[in-house]
Amino acid sequence: MTYLLRVVLPDRPGTLGALASALGAEGADILSVDVVERGGGSAVDDLVVDMPSSRLPDVLITAAEAVDGVMVESVRPFAGALDTTRELELVEAVTARPEDGLDLLADGVPRLFRSAWALITEATGEGRRVRRVASSSAAPETEAAELGWLPLDKATVLDPAGGHTVPEAWTDLDTELAAAPLGRPERAVVVGRPGGPAFRPSELARLSHLAGIVATITG
């Protein structure tokens, strides 16, 4: 079984090695590591870890948090290894086929951000009615009549409890949501990550940057 493990750990030499040793002692093999963000003396890393099918994923949490200063944010099943070149590949694909750029973005974002789905929505007309522009295959079918947080001026975490109204289907399975404006404030790309982890500021910055590039290419 392969899992995606997000950890917060002290940003000092030897910590990642100690973490790898602790996981290895439980039969886990780290396939890849992605630094999500770094600052303030700590780092947030995504680790793709291979485990024998006979072991429970809870073992990963226990082993990781036995290392001084390490905290596990989430553990969830994962297919494949982390591949940071996919972001460049997506931009290249959009450049080659700008007429399909929004569909390519919606399809590609879930892989880049280890999420389940993405969709592009736009508020139009005097009543600010919302229409779906594009979506990935796993995006919820529910359409929103209106989204009070559109227009959107910057990438943000959408918090339904904090006033960001979204369709109920978007929040199934404790889905974490993030959105970024796409070319203009009235249009946004929305990303859903069921079960977490929460979107970090560095991920919001990446999403905003990617949306800006695609919007420029597609016009």
From TrEMBL:
Matches recorded under SUPFAM superfamilies: ACT-like (SSF55021)
Protein name: ACT domain-containing protein
Family matches, as InterPro entries: ACT-like_dom_sf, ACT_dom
Domain ACT: 4-80
Pfam families: ACT
